[in-house]
Here is the input.
Amino acid sequence: ARGISLSMTAERRYDFEPWSVGTDQLDTPFEIRVQDINFRLSSDAQIAACGVAILAAVKHEARALRDSLITRSLVETCILEQNTLSDAMATILTSKICSDELPGSQGRKALLEAMRLHLSSPAVLRGLVSD
Here is the structure.
């Protein structure tokens, strides 16, 4: 098997696909991995893999906020308990629109599910990831 090198060619492209399944486990900083991705021309699978990496980076940073009584609940609910970037964004947006104390939790659940569905579509996820 060929060894994987992190060196870049003169065109600023890696000699491996930064978002492929085989290299997702590389200990490469997120900022380095994302700087050369073309969000407009990348495949939906590459964008989805980038979304996974973004959520992993956000979760890594958010873990430190669990130590505070002020931020623990918000971080756990909105970030650490979420499985996808779309789920995290839907949870955050729904919490801003619907208060937990308002009656009509069915409406909140319906809004959350609608947002999760919409934000996970390939075109919208592409926008979330590229932003």
In short: DSSP finds six helices and no strands in the chain. Confidence is low (pLDDT under 50) at residues 1-16.
